Structure prediction request, 192 residues.
Amino acid sequence: MTIHDCFKKYEDYTTCAKGTDKGTAHSYLQVYDECFRDMTPTKVLEIGIASGGSLAAWADYFGDQTTIIGMDITLKNVIHGKNKANVQMILGDATRFSDIHQHLGVEGSFDIIIDDGSHRFVDQVCSMVLLLDRVKDGGYYIIEDFVELTEENLNIIGKLATKHQMHAKIYDLRSVKGEWSDVMIVMQKRAS
Prediction:
């Protein structure tokens, strides 16, 4: 099944209240397809769950051998993914060390981390500081909806990426569908 097929099953064109907007309001699926098509990850973390639509879609796309973990400050809107054996949902704040430590442990690494949380720059940086070390060699750390697109903010992201041996690329997709928040930053960790 293609990434587009997997996400179509859970898509929502409006607010993510009933599904995912990664391929509807946003234009992220083509980028994800390019990054992930040859990957067989064992562990994926997504910050921000909303309805659980993207967690369920990732579970379908990557298959049962991949553990999909979602973390959010509320689980009250979850309608997808609850019955999938390889999906775990954590109530916690990815900007707080105590929540990361409690729920993800001291060790533990991920092939892919996707930040689709608050979409606030300060939160995106906090999560990066706490989680970039947990990305495996060759793995990805991706920020969706990077709305505070300033030179200063991009320099901060660039410095953090470089410090953690990651190559960063900005995808400004706002002209594709006219969505003002359709910007993502894709960072891939260099192999040691």
Remarks:
- The helical segments are 3-8, 29-36, 53-62, 97-104, 121-131, 151-163, 174-177.
- Residues 26 and 173 are 8 Å apart (CA to CA).
- The first helix runs from residue 3 to 8.
